[in-house]
Design goal:
The chain is an alpha+beta fold. The protein has two domains: 52 residues; 159 residues, L,D-transpeptidase catalytic domain-like, CATH 2.40.440.10. 30% of the residues lie in helices and 31% in strands. It has four helices and eleven strands. A six-stranded mixed β-sheet has the order 1-4-3-2-11-5, with helices on one face. 22% of the residues are buried.
């Protein structure tokens, strides 16, 4: 017991300068550890970003509420006879509308967006050549940030992405190709005027209905 008290008295009698030196040393050690941890964390973040922006990593596109609304809210008519096939599709560029026929009867009408000046939708008599429910453009796309939100909606294949972004091919769901150069009908954004690169965009809901009720070989007339 006397020995323990003696040791305690000895520790308490250490000079203030010595204690300050010990505390200072401990502070330096803790600061070094903190910097080390932050460096590791920064390194991990850089690695994650490199993975996000890698061309080998699939891009998950995100849409804001405003974008979701503008993709959907268009009035259209869909009243086909379920016992009769769709016999013809007519795209009227001047009206910015598509008409779906069963014989002489109109089974559906929807607003559309056709090609902008310089990328005019070609007129003519065609047929559906290919159906692809989840098609991606091989020519055009967008640049998206690390969270998948669109930064530039007018990107092209081979264009260098701005820093911190990645290229994502344009979505063309419910795609009905009518020409060998890739022109077709698909779901997309309708701004209310010709704005596409030549394809015929439709509201998503209408495009899904049309895709589900037509076949390869169905005639498609594109008129001025």
């Amino acid at each position: 017991m006397n020995l323990n008290l003696s040791r305690s008295t000895h520790l308490l009698s250490v000079s203030p300068d010595f204690r300050r030196a010990v505390y200072f040393g401990l502070g330096i050690l803790l600061l070094s550890l903190s910097h080390s941890l932050r460096a590791d964390d920064t390194s991990s973040t850089s690695t994650r970003k490199a993975q996000v922006y890698s061309s080998k990593t699939p891009v998950v596109r995100q849409y804001t509420l405003q974008e979701r609304v503008r993709y959907q809210l268009w009035n259209y008519v869909w009243k086909p006879d379920p016992n009769q096939p769709i016999t013809r599709i007519e795209v009227r560029i001047g009206e910015q509308k598509v008409y779906v026929y069963q014989g002489d009867r109109i089974a559906g009408i929807s607003p559309i967006t056709t090609g902008k000046p310089g990328h005019d939708t070609p007129t003519g008599h065609y047929t559906i050549l290919v159906k692809d429910i989840d098609h991606k453009s091989n020519l055009y796309g967008v640049f998206v940030d690390a969270n998948g939100y669109v930064v530039d909606g007018n990107a092209e294949v081979g264009q260098t992405p701005p820093p911190g972004t990645a290229y994502d091919s344009a979505d063309m769901p419910y795609y009905l190709r009518i020409r060998d150069d890739g022109v077709g009908l698909h779901a997309g954004y309708l701004p209310g005027y010709p704005a596409s690169h030549g394809c015929i965009r439709q509201p998503h809901a209408f495009a899904e209905l049309l895709f589900s009720n037509v076949s390869v070989g169905t005639p498609v007339d594109v008129v001025p």
